[in-house]
Amino acid sequence: MIRTNGLTKKFKETLAVDGLSLEIHEGEVFGFLGPNGAGKTTTVRMLTALIGPSSGSAEVAGFQIGREDTAIRRSVGVLTESPGMYDNLSAEYNLRIYADLYDVADPAGQVEKYLKMLGLFDRRLDAAGTFSKGMKQKLAIARALLHEPKIIFLDEPTAGLDPEAARLVRDFIAELKKEGRTIFLCTHNLDEADRLCDRIGVFKTRLLVVDTPANLRSSIFGRKVVYHLRASDEKFVSSVRALPFVREAKVMESKLLVTLDDPEKQNPEIIRVLVRDGADIQFVGELRHSLEDVYLQLVKAA
Description:
The chain is of the alpha/beta class. It has a six-stranded mixed β-sheet with strand order 6-7-8-3-9-10, sandwiched between helices. α3 crosses α4 and α8 crosses α11. It folds into two domains: 210 residues, P-loop containing nucleotide triphosphate hydrolases (Rossmann fold); 67 residues, Alpha-Beta Plaits. A hairpin with a 2-residue loop joins β12 and β13. Helix content is 38%, strand content 28%. It is elongated, with a radius of gyration of 24 Å. The chain contains eleven helices and 14 strands. The model has no long low-confidence stretch (mean pLDDT 90).
C-alpha cells in the first residue's frame, strides 16, 4: 500500500528526511517513532502529497507521488497533530463541508455514522469551538474517515487527551485495523505503539530499524528469563553459563537471570541442569524490556 525508495527532503541546508526506503503492507498498523524534529511529520506530508520530495520516489495506494497527487489525496485520510476546525460552525456542518469536498456519495449518512461511532452525535449541533480537546480530536478523526480511505495517517492521535478519551481513540484504531485499513501511526506514546502496531520503524532523519516490537526487544536485549530459586548458589550460574545458547547469566538475591534467544526451546534444558545441580525452582517467569527501553537505546546509538 505504501512503498518508498530513497525518499529525501531538504529545506535549504537542512536535511529533514534522508533516503527513506520502506514498504508498508495492506491492513498493517505501522508505527513511526522518533524524537521531535526527526522528520516524521515531513515524511507524512510527502506521503500524503502535501509537499514534494527533493529526490527519491514513493507510491501510495498504487499512485505515484509527484505524478498522481490528486488521486493520492482522495485515497488517504489524514489526522494532523493540530487539526484545524471551523470553531464557529457546528460539528455536523464541519464534517459536511469535508464530505462535500471529497464528493462523498451519502454525506448526511456518513456524517451521522462517524459522529455516532465517536460518541459525538448528541453534540452535533454545537459549535466545534465549544468542544474539549478530546472531542475536537475525535471530530478530526471522523473528518479523516468520511470518504472511507483505505490508508489513514494519524499524527499523535492521543496527544493531550485524558485517559478515557485516549482509550476510546486507541479502541477505534483497533477497530479500523479489523476492517483492513492500513494505518500509518506517528506517536510518542510507546505503550500505545506497542499495543497497536504490527511493525515499528524508529526514525531520526533516516530510518534506523524496522521490525515487530517483540523482535526489536529480542534483537537488542535478548529475552531475560527469571528462575526463582529457594536459595541461590554460584555453581548454578556456572552450570548455566556453560550451555552454548546462553547469552548471559547472573544471580540477583534468590533469582537467576538468564538471557536467551529462544526461551520456549531452551528453558527445558536449563531447568534440567539446575535440578541436576540441586536447585529448588519455585517458578519461572520472563523479564520484559519495554518498547521505551528499545527506543531510547536505538536513538542514543544514532
